[in-house]
Amino acid sequence: MTLTPPDLHVPALEAAIAPGLDAVEALLHRSVAGSRDLVDDLTAHLAQAGGKRIRPLLTLVCAQLGSPELALSDQVIAAATAMELTHIASLYHDDVMDSAPTRRGVPSAQHLWGNNRAILAGDILFARASRLIATLGSESVAHHSRTFERLCLGQLNETFGPRPGDDPVDFYVQVLADKTGSLLSAAAHFGAYHAHAPREYAQVVADFGEKVGVAFQIADDVLDLVSSGETSGKTPGTDLREGVDTLPVLLLRRHASEGTLDAEGRAILSDLEGDLDSDEALASVVERLRTHGVVAETRGMARGWALAAVESLDPLPEGEPRTALISFARLMVERVA
């Protein structure tokens, strides 16, 4: 499969990292195989289905902040591949928890092989990511372990929900930071760190990665409503049907609790409590929610997090890596323009 990385509008840098992306793809496909045929079919399922590879891309861009001789080193390639393996492993588990029928335009692993096998496949991929990280030294092992912990805590906290007295919107954003921001943060950190960039640069890009990860997930909440099924690969409003309160709905509830929600918003909330099993009922709620002000408010929050990510890059020197990271942040949210 040929993957086309996002256009970062920095041609020279993109040409420099292209061999690294090819090396990551080759190592990724070796890493998801190596067992008997039936197991390989399962563990390779999502890697072969494609994906944006934004985490390895971020690793390779951040490696450009370090030594040119190390920017495509075996260590950087291993780190970038481990980030994608960790991400793919988490998708196997997410799809079990969400009972998702599809992923990346193909049937999900749990749909094809059942929950138990999908969970174990995710565990195998986590183990193989850890094996790659183990070649990078104890500090990287510890960093990856903390990231893995945050991924799991984010997923668990999402299932428990906020405690009484917690602000549901702030709680939700923290879940996004843990589930998505933490891995993008680690991907950026590993690129700078293993290319021997200054330590402060590694911290800067780690902060950038976390913020841009939150922006990316908030943008996805808008896409769940405004994109076509052909574009997103799932029926618009699927989260609504499953009773998942994404950010637009949480903002509706916040405005309702503050006494500032308009009549249309109150009607939407009422309908969300009803039966959305029919496609007609779901489509009606989605269409009305698309035009409500909370969607524009959600877009604004995505852009705000992307802007905060860009502002966090101020300590970096001017140059192609910084320009590419700014483009990267914009790409995460321009899908909801």
TrEMBL record:
<protein>
    <submittedName>
        <fullName>Polyprenyl synthetase family protein</fullName>
        <ecNumber>2.5.1.-</ecNumber>
    </submittedName>
</protein>
<dbReference type="Pfam" id="PF00348">
    <property type="entry name" value="polyprenyl_synt"/>
</dbReference>
<dbReference type="GO" id="GO:0016740">
    <property type="term" value="F:transferase activity"/>
</dbReference>
<dbReference type="InterPro" id="IPR033749">
    <property type="entry name" value="Polyprenyl_synt_CS"/>
</dbReference>
<dbReference type="InterPro" id="IPR000092">
    <property type="entry name" value="Polyprenyl_synt"/>
</dbReference>
<keyword id="KW-0460">Magnesium</keyword>
<keyword id="KW-0808">Transferase</keyword>
<keyword id="KW-0479">Metal-binding</keyword>
<dbReference type="InterPro" id="IPR008949">
    <property type="entry name" value="Isoprenoid_synthase_dom_sf"/>
</dbReference>
<comment type="similarity">
    <text>Belongs to the FPP/GGPP synthase family.</text>
</comment>
